[in-house]
Amino acid sequence: MRDRVRIACRAAAVAIALAAAGGATTVPAVAAPTGITQTAPAPAPTGLTYRYDAVTEQVTVSWDPKDPADTVTTGYREGSCSGPSTADGPCFARVSGPLLTGSSFTFHQAAGRTRYFRLYAENAAHQLTGSAILTITT
């Protein structure tokens, strides 16, 4: 019973405050902060392919080099996904360590394994744009 009384009192207080404000029922608009610039997203990496060396169990993923006209991409980050599609689950990017700056990445993967690889382009604001998912089967 006390809770109902408290709720009724609070509702009445809100109604009185709204009436005092001239019946306003919306929140006043807030001006956007000044001096903030938006950073364009980096274009998604394209042309992903892989090569597997069974002797060393090394996978080398290659992608199209960065377009010379691209002034937004600061580098790349490797990632992996739960499946061959984003509908299969989340994808994760490695966000620690240095950015990849070339157009290939090599890592160890044992034979008989499947990995769903995704490459991310990063801009100056550290926003990531993901490539298509590459299925790597060794």
Account of the protein in words:
By secondary structure, this protein is of the alpha+beta class. 14% of the residues lie in helices and 30% in strands. The protein has one helix and eight strands. It has one helix at 2-20; strands at residues 49-53, 58-62, 75-81, 91-93, 104-108, 114-122, 128-130, 134-137. The strands form two sheets. Strands 3, 4, 6, 7 and 8 form a five-stranded antiparallel beta sheet that branches. Strands 1-2-5 form a three-stranded antiparallel beta sheet, with no helix packed on it. A hairpin with a 5-residue loop joins β6 (114-122) and β7 (128-130). It is elongated and about 75 Å long. The mean pLDDT is 86.
How far is it from the N-terminal to the C-terminal residue, by CA? 67 Å
Helix content: 10-25%
Q: Tell me about the biggest sheet?
A: 5 strands, antiparallel
User: What is the residue-averaged pLDDT?
Assistant: 86
Number of strands: 8
Summarize the helix and strand pattern as letters.
HEEEEEEEE
